[in-house]
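Q: Two folds, back to back.
A: First:
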Amino acid sequence: MTKTLLSSGDLIADRRASYAQMLFIGGDPAAAADLMEQALERVPDWPAGLDLLGRFREAAGDVAGAIAAWRELAARDAEGIFGATLKLAVHGAAIAPDRTEPGYVAALFDTYADDFDAALLQRLGYRVPGLIAAGLNVAMADAGVERVAKALDLGCGTGLMGEHLRRPVSHLTGIDLSAGMLAEARLKGIYDELSEAELNAYLAGSADLVDIVTAADVFVYCGALPPLFEGVARVLRPGGLFAFSVETHAGPEAFVLRPSLRYAHGKAATLAALSEAGFTLISAHEEALREDRGEPVMGLVIVARRAAQAAVADLRPAEAAKAETVEAAPSLH
């Protein structure tokens, strides 16, 4: 999210908003909300200001006031950059959407791109890429394959998953909504190709077939998984591997929206959607994916195989893979 989006264009309103944030950080959200209301008297249509007002009122215990601010925000933020619909849904004031607005995800991760790796690995104990890589390694070893031709890393971010995929993959593609995250990934030199794209649109429009698809900590921003699973099946070769993580919940619902504005999925519904999309489950391990306020966030790390067609040959052994050139590296089919 850029400074241009955060500024109201009115110096006095911006100054009051800055003071309000200082009050909020200092532990007085009610005073922060009062001052934010004064700022918005000058610029009533300021989306970032309405978002701050909602946050301050919520922290002060004025949930009804926060909902009112976010309803105004939703009417003024056409791209959903501030996630007003999500915030309303968490408080029961709107129906949870099937997915997070792409504008919100892009803005969120543009904000965190510079410090993303340190924040996840050092402060939040993020483990997902390593867990997914371990599951893939087992599946590939069981199939007698050491190297494949092509892999697609959905929501690649700064390349934390790509770092694990580089060795066993000849051509690695990453896609992400955030230009800031892609810039960080490009600096690492991990990927052969990077694209700024929304997941469903990319999967629907891709003409390429790949051997592995990964999605590390991506589906927390996607409620309804069946359309995504169908899209992944479309770009995977028969016999190809699909490895991903989901945060989980214990209820019967296919997905729920948490106060963190992230989706948690039901295990049974997730596995059923995989099967319906033409995947055979290889493994589904319950793991602590990361920490949130010092508590583990539990989820599933899943590896599945796209059902192979009858005419497709068995997996090539690892010995054959070593003999191939990079351009003709064997696939998981």
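A: Second:
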Amino acid sequence: METLLISPAPLTALDLLQVARENRPIELSPEALASMQQSRAVIDALINDERPHYGVSTGFGALATVHIPVPMRAQLQRSLIRSHAASSGAEVDREVIRGLMLNRLHTMVTGRTGVRPVVAETYAALLNAGITPVVGEYGSLGCSGDLAPLSHCALAVMGEGTVRDAAGVSMPAAEALAAAGIEPVELAEKEGLALINGTDGMLGMLAMASIDIGRLIAVADLAAAMSVEGLLGTDAVFAADLHALRPQFGQAESAAAITGHLAGSALIESVKNGEHSFTRVQDAYSLRCAPQVHGAVRSTLAHAQSVATAEFGSAIDNPVVTTDGRVESNGNFHGAPVGYVLDFLAIAVADLASMSERRTDRFLDKARSHGLNPFLADDPGVDSGHMIAQYTAAGIVSELKRLAVPASVDSIPSSAMQEDHVSMGWAAGLKLRKAIDGAERVLAIEILTAARGLDMRDGGLDSSQSSPSITATRRIVRTVVEGPGPDRYISPEIEAVTQLVKRGALLAL
């Protein structure tokens, strides 16, 4: 993969995903190095100044009134990192920490933090070497930056703490850096503080989630089309002129996607031609209203992406070196903008999955499936079919509703009431990641169920009456899961289709 040049220009969500998840190599631009040298000169001019400058000659947080003598100012930075690397709990995913490090690196190269180029170069070296600090899930309140997670990363740059190498082996940071030929950094004045004051962790999670949710919406449109077709629904409600009557952002796009997936379906045509023994004027909401719900998720995602774009164009530190050379305190590290949209997306993801589970359930009820076996069982009674697969989806949806409770409405004061309102954005990001994983599994169960229902409806792929798009989807599913038959071990089948959803394999049609 081509090397990504890190400059003061904003990153994109795709840039971050490629570095964090796909190990894209990076390199600092000449402009980045020049901007850091320029702002470092401002900090160097303050090193011996007896007047108080936060982060240079004072303590931190509630200890900001404590004057630090000149000989102790470098030690101040090391002590800050060691004391703030206080995370606890389950280890955070590698890609989250890599995204956090890339975001902090990008803020450095804007020239607003006052760090030396060697610090940024060392961060880039760790990322390129695949060295990832071990960080626990607890420790950030989403204000004053993602303090504990960022401190663990700074600690690794100092050659301290625990990391995982490119092979995933846990080891002391000093050993990993030595093996990669990376010299640990001796932090200078202000640099410790500059490495931990940012929304970098929550922004990285938002960036990756925005791409994952974009894929999730497209899969949901496909799954809905499969359910409409498999349940002998109508495509009339997806007509463009009907959605033009309510021009909500995203709604028409989802309707068009579902229409496209259904185009050329012999099953849909058979309903229009009255070839079935039932008369149904309207489909259930989970079928008929899919564009309205999926479109609302698209709209929510677009808003979240606008927040991420603004954050990618930001330089967050406290104090910050301004463009005219002042060193000023500020509150830009507060994570509220990012925390809010992380929570908003968790609500949207939960609802997307909730509607999907309802479509799955319709396939399994003989009173609503229009001729399919109860629970899609091969021999109902002897076999249970997808009965418990629906339980799994229902259990996940219930969990997603709990995860949709916002983290950002909570605040617990810290630092002796100096930091008396915090965002909890880090927690919002972690729970959104869990929500996305759950929704992917719910959609996988719907696709697995719809494919089985369609096979039972038309006799399988050799006699497929599905649209070209859905026939192609069924064909992909059948490469990892066998067609209908007596009950078999179903958990691996759910996982196999989940991996198709996660990889976007169903969208390459």
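Q: And?
A: The first strand starts at residue 4 and ends at 6.
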